[in-house]
Amino acid sequence: MTVPAALDGAAVERALAMPVAIAAIRDALRGGLDPAAGPARSVVPVPHGQLLLMPAYWGRYAGVKLATVAPGNPERGLPRIQGAYLLLDGETLRPLAVVDAVSLTAIRTAAVSAVAVDLLAEPDARRLVVFGSGPQAHSHLAAVRAVRPVDEVVVVGRDEGRARAFADAAAGEGLTARVGTAADVAGADLVVCATTARTPLFDGALLHPRATVVAVGSHEPDAAEVDATTVCACTVVVEDRMTALREAGDVIGPVQAGLLDPGTLVGLADVARGVVVVPPSRPRLFKSVGMAWEDLVLAAEVHAAV
To answer: Which InterPro entries does the UniProt entry name for this protein (predicted)?
Structure first.
């Protein structure tokens, strides 16, 4: 048996500069990839977290990500999300590569968000509020800057030291950056929620009609980073409607409460292909739960680059 190539985090980062990753996701959606076609994520609870199994197939490739979520890891100085991606030849199912899933997940989540931001946000959006100061917050700043002229960043985080370090790093890149509070949402063109919070982070009544919100922190039906006010005020775009109604607590809560018609959810692929045009007259929310096709698209991109 041929041993597949092992591609570490450095290889992933070399292959997936953020503009490359964004273009790969956008091209896949416009090229006919159907987010609804893939199998559902398997979630297995274990004593100290979760095991996630995420298979996918499309085009020339198939693959599966085995990811682990260990909430206690950041206190140990370890990533909360770890794992590996096994990329397979689509026809023979021969293993081609084992890809580091930490870097892959950080980049693919932000790249998908950037595709959504590019489709939904105002062209001149420049004021960004980021909730969170971990890897996804950092990745999302880079991703959003790749598609919008962001020059002002406010960081809101539970850990003031980490939030300040994040703001200082952004300032070092030439941005106007500071630590703020949830009230800063009122002046935001863009809001990114990249946290482990299980309850809403801000009052949706504060959102400006021009604002675009991205929420990526949860794939669990009983967790929500944004409140029902936000969801009901916004045009809600999701990776896949059925997946969102199964996994996105931010959406499931308002639907179960009778506040949101699930038929109004808009699929990201429909927006990317121009099937649906999102009106600019109200705020926009992109709720992502992370799907296996995203990992497959970018794992294939990494393999092709090495």
So the answer is: NAD(P)-bd_dom_sf, ODC_Mu_crystall, ODC_N
Give CA–CA dist 224/199, Å, rounded: 5
d(CA 242, CA 233): 21
Fill in the amino acid letter for 213. V
- Give buried/exposed letters for 230-260 (b at 16+ CB in 10 A, else e): bbbbbbbbbbbbebbbebbbbbbbbbeeeeb
Question: Given the structure tokens 């959810």, which residue do they identify?
Answer: 265
Q: Which tokens sit at 161?
A: 């030291």
Residue ranges covered by each domain of the chain = 5-105+293-305, 111-291
- Enter the tokens of residue 186: 């009122």
C-alpha to C-alpha distance for 269 and 215, rounded to whole angstroms: 17
What's the CATH fold of domain 5-105+293-305?
Answer: ornithine cyclodeaminase, domain 1 (3.30.1780)
Domain spanning 111-291 has what CATH number? Answer: 3.40.50.720
Helix (H, G, I), strand (E, B) or coil at 1: coil
Start-to-end CA span in the chain (Å): 21
Label residue 48 by pLDDT band (50, 70, 90).
very high
pLDDT tens track for 118-173: 999 999 999 999 999 999 999 999 999 999 999 999 999 999 999 999 999 999 99
> How does 50-87 read in b/e, with b if 16+ C-beta sit within 10 Å?
bebbbbbbbeebbbbbbbbbbeebeeeeebbbbbbbbb
Average pLDDT, stretch 183-209? 96
The gap from C-alpha 5 to its chain's centroid, in whole angstroms, comes to 27
